[in-house]
Amino acid sequence: MGFQGRKTVAGVDGAKGKWVVALFDGQDLQMSVEPDVQAVLVATRRCDVVGVDMPLSLPESGYRTSELEAKSFLGRARSSIFHTPVRAVLDTTTYEEACAVSRRITGKAISKQTWYLMSSVRQWQDVSFDPERVVEVHPECSFRHMAPDTSFVSKKSARGVGQRLSALSTWLDPVSVHDAMASLPVEPAADDALDAAAAAWSAWRFSRGKHRYFGTSDGVDRIVA
C-alpha cells in the first residue's frame, strides 16, 4: 500500500469557489483548503506532479477529444463531465451572452452547470504552469480505474462515499484518509475531499508513466487517469 519512491504529488478539486488540495509524499496524506489558484500553486510548489479536476485547455470550436473519450469510458456516469466551452466564452459576463457566443461558434448553448464553473476555469487560464507537471484529471475516471470491478453510485450518497473510500484504501492507509479529511474546515463537502485524493492518485500514476490518458499525449487536450 502507498507509493514507492520519494516523489510528492498533489490532487486538486474545486469546492464552492475554493480548492481542496490533497498532498501525498509517499507516506502521509495531508489536505488543505486554498482560496484561489495562486495559493494552490504555492501549496504544491514542491510537488513533482499536480492533478487538477478542472479544464486546463479550451477548444477554439467544438468539443475536446479528451472529454468525448472520457465520457465514452464513463458510460452511464458520462453526465459527470461537463463539456468545456469554447475559448471565446471566457470573455463573456452573463450566462445569456455566453450561450449566444457558444451558439454562434458551435451551434449549441452551454449548460448552467458549465457557466457556474467559468470563474474557476478562468483562474487556471490566468496562470502559467508546466503542462507536464500540472495535469488535468477527472476523479470519476480515476475511481473507475482504481476499482474497475466497483459499480459506483452517486458520490453524494452514503454508499457512494463508502465506495470511494474503499477504492482509495487500495493504495492509501484508510486512517490517513480519515485523519486528513478530519483536519479540513467545515466548508468542503466530503466528495470534494475524496475527489482531491483521487486526483492525487492519477498524479502519482502520471509521475511514474503508468497513467492512461484521454485525448492527446502532448497535454494540449488531455485528461489523465
Question: Could you characterize what this model shows?
Answer:
This protein is of the alpha/beta class. It has a domain at 9-58 and 129-224: Nucleotidyltransferase, domain 5 (2-Layer Sandwich), CATH 3.30.420. It contains 8 helices and 7 strands; from the N terminus they run βββαβαααβααααββ. It has helices at residues 37-43, 65-74, 95-106, 112-125, 139-146, 158-168, 174-182, 190-207, and strands spanning 9-15, 18-24, 29-34, 49-53, 134-136, 213-215, 222-224. The strands form 2 sheets. A 5-stranded mixed beta sheet has the order 3-2-1-4-5. The protein has a two-stranded antiparallel ribbon with strand order 6-7. Strand 2 and strand 3 (29-34) form a beta hairpin. Helix 5 (139-146) packs across helix 8 and helix 6 packs parallel to helix 8 (190-207). The chain is globular and about 50 Å long.
Secondary structure topology:
Blueprint: E1 9-15, E2 18-24, E3 29-34, H1 37-43, E4 49-53, H2 65-74, H3 95-106, H4 112-125, E5 134-136, H5 139-146, H6 158-168, H7 174-182, H8 190-207, E6 213-215, E7 222-224
Parallel strand pairs: 1-4, 4-5
Antiparallel strand pairs: 1-2, 2-3, 6-7
Helix pairs in contact: 5-8, 6-8
The fraction of residues assigned to DSSP E strands is 15-25%
CATH class placement of the domain at 9-58 and 129-224: Alpha Beta
Query: N- to C-terminal separation?
Result: 19 Å
Structural class label: alpha/beta
Unreliable spans are: none
C-alpha geometry: globular
Q: Note the run of SSEs as H and E.
A: EEEHEHHHEHHHHEE
The helix fraction, in percent, is 25-40%
